[in-house]
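Example 5.3 — Endolysin
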Amino acid sequence: MGTAAGMIAQARKLLGTRESPPGSNHNFITSWYGFDGPWCEMTISYVAAHSDNLSAVLGKYAWTVGRAQAFKDAGRWHYGLGGVRPGDIVYFDWSGGGRISGIDHVGLVEAVHSNGTITTLEGNTSNMMMRRVRRASIVGYGRPRYNGSAPMPSTDGILRVNSTGNAVKTLQGNLNKVMGSKLVVDGFFGSDTEMALKAFQSKYRLEVDGVYGPQSAAMMKAALAGKTAPIPPKPNPPAPARLVVDGKFGPTTCAAMQRALNSHGAKLIVDGAMGPLTNKALQKHVGSAQDGIMGPNTIKALQRKIGATQDGIWGPNTTTKLQQKLNAGTF
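Solution (predicted C-alpha coordinates):
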Protein backbone atom coordinates (compact mmCIF):
# COMPACT_ATOMS: atom_id res chain seq x y z
CA MET A 1 0.00 0.00 0.00
CA GLY A 2 1.31 3.45 -0.92
CA THR A 3 0.96 6.87 0.66
CA ALA A 4 -0.96 10.07 -0.01
CA ALA A 5 2.32 11.80 -0.87
CA GLY A 6 3.08 9.13 -3.47
CA MET A 7 -0.40 9.48 -4.97
CA ILE A 8 0.01 13.24 -5.29
CA ALA A 9 3.52 12.95 -6.75
CA GLN A 10 2.30 10.55 -9.43
CA ALA A 11 -0.62 12.83 -10.31
CA ARG A 12 1.72 15.80 -10.71
CA LYS A 13 3.64 13.87 -13.35
CA LEU A 14 0.48 13.83 -15.50
CA LEU A 15 -0.09 17.61 -15.50
CA GLY A 16 -0.48 18.82 -19.06
CA THR A 17 -1.76 15.47 -20.37
CA ARG A 18 -4.16 16.12 -23.24
CA GLU A 19 -6.61 14.34 -25.48
CA SER A 20 -5.67 13.57 -29.04
CA PRO A 21 -7.65 15.07 -30.65
CA PRO A 22 -9.34 17.49 -28.21
CA GLY A 23 -12.85 16.31 -27.44
CA SER A 24 -12.06 12.68 -28.31
CA ASN A 25 -11.56 11.32 -24.74
CA HIS A 26 -8.50 9.52 -26.10
CA ASN A 27 -5.05 9.50 -24.54
CA PHE A 28 -2.66 7.07 -22.83
CA ILE A 29 -4.80 7.07 -19.67
CA THR A 30 -7.91 5.87 -21.49
CA SER A 31 -5.79 3.41 -23.49
CA TRP A 32 -4.48 2.01 -20.18
CA TYR A 33 -8.01 1.72 -18.80
CA GLY A 34 -9.34 0.04 -21.92
CA PHE A 35 -11.83 2.42 -23.54
CA ASP A 36 -12.28 6.03 -24.61
CA GLY A 37 -14.72 7.93 -22.41
CA PRO A 38 -14.84 10.68 -19.79
CA TRP A 39 -11.53 10.09 -18.03
CA CYS A 40 -11.55 12.05 -14.77
CA GLU A 41 -12.18 8.93 -12.67
CA MET A 42 -9.95 6.84 -14.92
CA THR A 43 -7.18 9.27 -13.97
CA ILE A 44 -7.68 8.49 -10.28
CA SER A 45 -7.44 4.78 -11.12
CA TYR A 46 -4.32 5.32 -13.24
CA VAL A 47 -2.57 7.43 -10.61
CA ALA A 48 -3.44 4.95 -7.87
CA ALA A 49 -2.27 1.97 -9.91
CA HIS A 50 1.07 3.69 -10.60
CA SER A 51 1.67 4.66 -6.95
CA ASP A 52 0.78 1.33 -5.26
CA ASN A 53 -2.57 2.74 -4.13
CA LEU A 54 -5.16 0.91 -6.22
CA SER A 55 -6.47 -1.02 -3.23
CA ALA A 56 -6.34 2.18 -1.15
CA VAL A 57 -8.85 3.83 -3.52
CA LEU A 58 -11.02 0.69 -3.45
CA GLY A 59 -10.17 -0.58 -6.90
CA LYS A 60 -10.33 0.38 -10.56
CA TYR A 61 -13.25 2.64 -11.49
CA ALA A 62 -14.18 4.74 -14.52
CA TRP A 63 -17.52 5.95 -13.07
CA THR A 64 -17.37 8.78 -10.53
CA VAL A 65 -20.60 7.75 -8.82
CA GLY A 66 -19.36 4.20 -8.44
CA ARG A 67 -16.20 5.05 -6.51
CA ALA A 68 -17.91 7.72 -4.42
CA GLN A 69 -20.57 5.22 -3.39
CA ALA A 70 -17.86 2.67 -2.62
CA PHE A 71 -16.20 5.18 -0.30
CA LYS A 72 -19.55 5.77 1.40
CA ASP A 73 -20.25 2.04 1.75
CA ALA A 74 -16.79 1.58 3.29
CA GLY A 75 -17.35 4.34 5.86
CA ARG A 76 -14.73 6.54 4.21
CA TRP A 77 -17.00 9.31 2.87
CA HIS A 78 -17.64 12.86 4.12
CA TYR A 79 -20.15 15.35 2.70
CA GLY A 80 -18.68 18.81 2.19
CA LEU A 81 -15.06 19.74 2.88
CA GLY A 82 -14.91 19.55 6.68
CA GLY A 83 -11.69 17.80 7.68
CA VAL A 84 -10.44 17.38 4.10
CA ARG A 85 -6.73 16.61 3.68
CA PRO A 86 -4.25 16.33 0.79
CA GLY A 87 -4.64 12.95 -0.87
CA ASP A 88 -8.41 12.83 -0.40
CA ILE A 89 -10.56 12.26 -3.50
CA VAL A 90 -13.07 15.09 -3.93
CA TYR A 91 -16.27 14.87 -5.97
CA PHE A 92 -18.30 17.56 -7.76
CA ASP A 93 -21.90 17.96 -8.90
CA TRP A 94 -22.04 20.87 -11.35
CA SER A 95 -25.83 21.09 -10.99
CA GLY A 96 -25.42 21.94 -7.32
CA GLY A 97 -27.69 19.09 -6.20
CA GLY A 98 -25.18 17.70 -3.73
CA ARG A 99 -26.11 14.02 -4.23
CA ILE A 100 -23.70 11.18 -4.85
CA SER A 101 -26.00 10.07 -7.67
CA GLY A 102 -25.50 13.45 -9.39
CA ILE A 103 -21.69 13.51 -9.28
CA ASP A 104 -20.12 14.70 -12.55
CA HIS A 105 -16.41 15.07 -11.83
CA VAL A 106 -13.58 14.16 -9.49
CA GLY A 107 -10.16 15.42 -8.47
CA LEU A 108 -7.29 14.58 -6.14
CA VAL A 109 -6.76 17.10 -3.33
CA GLU A 110 -3.23 18.50 -3.54
CA ALA A 111 -3.53 21.23 -0.91
CA VAL A 112 -6.05 22.68 1.56
CA HIS A 113 -6.15 26.45 2.16
CA SER A 114 -7.26 28.60 5.08
CA ASN A 115 -9.72 30.56 2.90
CA GLY A 116 -11.90 27.48 2.39
CA THR A 117 -10.57 26.53 -1.05
CA ILE A 118 -8.66 23.45 -2.11
CA THR A 119 -6.15 22.87 -4.89
CA THR A 120 -6.92 19.77 -6.93
CA LEU A 121 -5.22 17.71 -9.62
CA GLU A 122 -7.90 16.75 -12.16
CA GLY A 123 -8.05 14.73 -15.33
CA ASN A 124 -10.52 15.59 -18.09
CA THR A 125 -10.89 19.23 -17.11
CA SER A 126 -11.02 21.23 -20.34
CA ASN A 127 -9.74 18.07 -22.04
CA MET A 128 -6.54 18.14 -19.99
CA MET A 129 -4.91 17.09 -16.73
CA MET A 130 -4.77 20.35 -14.82
CA ARG A 131 -4.34 21.93 -11.42
CA ARG A 132 -7.50 23.72 -10.24
CA VAL A 133 -8.55 25.79 -7.22
CA ARG A 134 -12.04 24.77 -6.09
CA ARG A 135 -14.67 25.76 -3.55
CA ALA A 136 -18.08 25.41 -5.19
CA SER A 137 -20.23 22.48 -6.35
CA ILE A 138 -18.45 20.02 -4.03
CA VAL A 139 -20.53 17.04 -2.92
CA GLY A 140 -17.92 15.56 -0.60
CA TYR A 141 -14.77 13.51 -0.48
CA GLY A 142 -13.53 9.99 0.05
CA ARG A 143 -10.42 9.16 2.05
CA PRO A 144 -8.34 6.32 0.61
CA ARG A 145 -6.75 3.73 2.91
CA TYR A 146 -3.21 5.01 2.47
CA ASN A 147 -0.38 3.89 4.70
CA GLY A 148 -0.46 6.36 7.58
CA SER A 149 -3.72 7.98 6.48
CA ALA A 150 -5.51 10.13 9.04
CA PRO A 151 -8.72 8.83 10.60
CA MET A 152 -11.97 10.06 9.13
CA PRO A 153 -13.69 13.03 10.80
CA SER A 154 -15.99 12.08 13.65
CA THR A 155 -19.09 12.98 11.60
CA ASP A 156 -20.04 12.43 7.99
CA GLY A 157 -20.78 16.12 7.38
CA ILE A 158 -24.55 15.79 7.83
CA LEU A 159 -26.38 17.48 10.72
CA ARG A 160 -28.98 15.44 12.58
CA VAL A 161 -30.43 15.02 16.08
CA ASN A 162 -27.64 15.25 18.72
CA SER A 163 -25.20 16.99 16.35
CA THR A 164 -23.35 19.87 18.01
CA GLY A 165 -21.07 22.73 17.08
CA ASN A 166 -20.85 25.90 15.03
CA ALA A 167 -22.46 24.29 11.98
CA VAL A 168 -25.57 23.65 14.07
CA LYS A 169 -25.53 27.27 15.27
CA THR A 170 -25.42 28.44 11.67
CA LEU A 171 -28.34 26.18 10.76
CA GLN A 172 -30.38 27.41 13.72
CA GLY A 173 -29.70 31.04 12.82
CA ASN A 174 -30.64 30.42 9.20
CA LEU A 175 -33.88 28.68 10.17
CA ASN A 176 -34.72 31.69 12.30
CA LYS A 177 -34.11 34.00 9.32
CA VAL A 178 -35.95 31.93 6.70
CA MET A 179 -38.72 30.36 8.75
CA GLY A 180 -39.04 32.62 11.80
CA SER A 181 -38.43 29.52 13.92
CA LYS A 182 -37.36 31.40 17.09
CA LEU A 183 -34.81 28.73 17.93
CA VAL A 184 -32.26 29.20 20.68
CA VAL A 185 -28.94 29.37 18.82
CA ASP A 186 -27.03 27.08 21.16
CA GLY A 187 -25.28 24.70 18.76
CA PHE A 188 -27.25 21.63 19.89
CA PHE A 189 -29.47 19.84 17.37
CA GLY A 190 -32.43 18.88 19.54
CA SER A 191 -36.12 18.24 18.91
CA ASP A 192 -36.95 21.93 18.35
CA THR A 193 -34.28 22.23 15.65
CA GLU A 194 -35.50 19.00 14.06
CA MET A 195 -39.10 20.28 13.93
CA ALA A 196 -38.00 23.59 12.44
CA LEU A 197 -35.90 21.82 9.83
CA LYS A 198 -38.78 19.52 8.89
CA ALA A 199 -41.02 22.57 8.43
CA PHE A 200 -38.36 24.08 6.15
CA GLN A 201 -38.08 20.86 4.16
CA SER A 202 -41.84 20.63 3.77
CA LYS A 203 -42.15 24.24 2.61
CA TYR A 204 -39.51 23.76 -0.09
CA ARG A 205 -40.71 20.30 -1.19
CA LEU A 206 -37.69 18.39 0.04
CA GLU A 207 -37.66 14.97 1.65
CA VAL A 208 -38.98 15.65 5.16
CA ASP A 209 -36.50 13.62 7.18
CA GLY A 210 -35.18 16.16 9.70
CA VAL A 211 -31.64 15.59 8.45
CA TYR A 212 -29.62 18.53 7.14
CA GLY A 213 -27.70 17.19 4.16
CA PRO A 214 -26.53 18.52 0.78
CA GLN A 215 -30.02 19.02 -0.70
CA SER A 216 -31.30 20.93 2.32
CA ALA A 217 -28.08 22.97 2.40
CA ALA A 218 -28.44 23.90 -1.28
CA MET A 219 -32.04 24.93 -0.72
CA MET A 220 -31.11 26.92 2.39
CA LYS A 221 -28.53 28.88 0.39
CA ALA A 222 -31.21 29.69 -2.18
CA ALA A 223 -33.83 30.57 0.44
CA LEU A 224 -31.45 33.00 2.12
CA ALA A 225 -31.07 34.70 -1.27
CA GLY A 226 -34.84 34.92 -1.67
CA LYS A 227 -35.07 32.08 -4.19
CA THR A 228 -37.55 29.20 -4.24
CA ALA A 229 -35.25 26.68 -5.93
CA PRO A 230 -31.54 25.83 -5.59
CA ILE A 231 -29.25 28.25 -7.38
CA PRO A 232 -27.37 26.56 -10.25
CA PRO A 233 -23.61 27.12 -10.05
CA LYS A 234 -22.19 29.52 -12.60
CA PRO A 235 -19.15 28.63 -14.71
CA ASN A 236 -16.05 30.73 -14.20
CA PRO A 237 -14.43 30.78 -17.65
CA PRO A 238 -11.20 32.59 -18.56
CA ALA A 239 -11.86 36.27 -19.26
CA PRO A 240 -11.85 37.45 -22.89
CA ALA A 241 -8.31 38.38 -23.93
CA ARG A 242 -5.98 38.15 -26.88
CA LEU A 243 -4.71 34.59 -27.06
CA VAL A 244 -1.10 33.59 -26.73
CA VAL A 245 -0.40 31.75 -29.98
CA ASP A 246 1.36 28.72 -28.52
CA GLY A 247 -0.39 25.76 -30.14
CA LYS A 248 -1.81 24.62 -26.78
CA PHE A 249 -5.56 24.02 -26.66
CA GLY A 250 -6.45 24.89 -23.07
CA PRO A 251 -9.43 26.56 -21.35
CA THR A 252 -8.55 30.06 -22.60
CA THR A 253 -8.48 29.01 -26.26
CA CYS A 254 -11.60 26.87 -25.80
CA ALA A 255 -13.49 29.78 -24.20
CA ALA A 256 -12.43 32.10 -27.03
CA MET A 257 -13.66 29.55 -29.56
CA GLN A 258 -16.99 29.21 -27.72
CA ARG A 259 -17.43 33.00 -27.78
CA ALA A 260 -16.68 33.01 -31.51
CA LEU A 261 -19.20 30.22 -32.09
CA ASN A 262 -21.78 32.18 -30.09
CA SER A 263 -21.22 35.15 -32.40
CA HIS A 264 -22.48 32.80 -35.14
CA GLY A 265 -25.60 31.90 -33.13
CA ALA A 266 -24.45 28.86 -31.14
CA LYS A 267 -25.82 29.97 -27.70
CA LEU A 268 -23.20 28.00 -25.76
CA ILE A 269 -22.45 28.45 -22.08
CA VAL A 270 -18.88 29.72 -22.14
CA ASP A 271 -17.05 27.46 -19.69
CA GLY A 272 -13.74 26.74 -21.42
CA ALA A 273 -14.53 23.01 -21.75
CA MET A 274 -15.08 20.91 -24.89
CA GLY A 275 -18.35 19.12 -24.22
CA PRO A 276 -20.82 17.60 -26.70
CA LEU A 277 -22.70 20.88 -27.26
CA THR A 278 -19.47 22.72 -28.07
CA ASN A 279 -18.45 19.87 -30.37
CA LYS A 280 -21.78 20.06 -32.22
CA ALA A 281 -21.60 23.86 -32.52
CA LEU A 282 -18.09 23.57 -33.93
CA GLN A 283 -19.22 20.87 -36.35
CA LYS A 284 -22.08 23.08 -37.57
CA HIS A 285 -19.69 25.99 -38.05
CA VAL A 286 -17.18 24.00 -40.08
CA GLY A 287 -19.84 22.07 -42.03
CA SER A 288 -19.39 18.50 -40.78
CA ALA A 289 -21.90 16.00 -39.41
CA GLN A 290 -23.23 17.18 -36.04
CA ASP A 291 -22.79 14.02 -33.96
CA GLY A 292 -20.88 15.61 -31.07
CA ILE A 293 -17.83 13.40 -31.70
CA MET A 294 -14.58 15.14 -32.58
CA GLY A 295 -13.38 12.62 -35.17
CA PRO A 296 -11.05 12.91 -38.18
CA ASN A 297 -13.75 14.19 -40.57
CA THR A 298 -14.66 17.07 -38.25
CA ILE A 299 -11.00 17.90 -37.68
CA LYS A 300 -10.31 17.94 -41.42
CA ALA A 301 -13.27 20.30 -41.91
CA LEU A 302 -11.90 22.55 -39.16
CA GLN A 303 -8.41 22.44 -40.68
CA ARG A 304 -9.82 23.33 -44.08
CA LYS A 305 -11.65 26.34 -42.60
CA ILE A 306 -8.61 27.72 -40.75
CA GLY A 307 -5.98 26.88 -43.36
CA ALA A 308 -4.18 24.13 -41.47
CA THR A 309 -2.77 20.91 -42.91
CA GLN A 310 -5.74 18.56 -43.47
CA ASP A 311 -4.50 15.39 -41.82
CA GLY A 312 -7.44 14.78 -39.43
CA ILE A 313 -5.17 15.08 -36.38
CA TRP A 314 -5.74 17.99 -34.00
CA GLY A 315 -2.20 18.85 -33.00
CA PRO A 316 -0.26 22.04 -32.21
CA ASN A 317 -0.34 23.27 -35.83
CA THR A 318 -4.14 23.13 -35.93
CA THR A 319 -4.44 24.91 -32.59
CA THR A 320 -1.93 27.58 -33.68
CA LYS A 321 -3.97 28.32 -36.83
CA LEU A 322 -7.16 28.41 -34.76
CA GLN A 323 -5.64 30.81 -32.23
CA GLN A 324 -4.52 33.11 -35.04
CA LYS A 325 -8.00 33.12 -36.56
CA LEU A 326 -9.60 33.79 -33.17
CA ASN A 327 -7.26 36.71 -32.50
CA ALA A 328 -8.01 38.14 -35.93
CA GLY A 329 -11.76 37.74 -35.43
CA THR A 330 -12.03 35.70 -38.63
CA PHE A 331 -13.07 32.31 -37.27
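Remark. Residues 296 and 312 are 4 Å apart (CA to CA).
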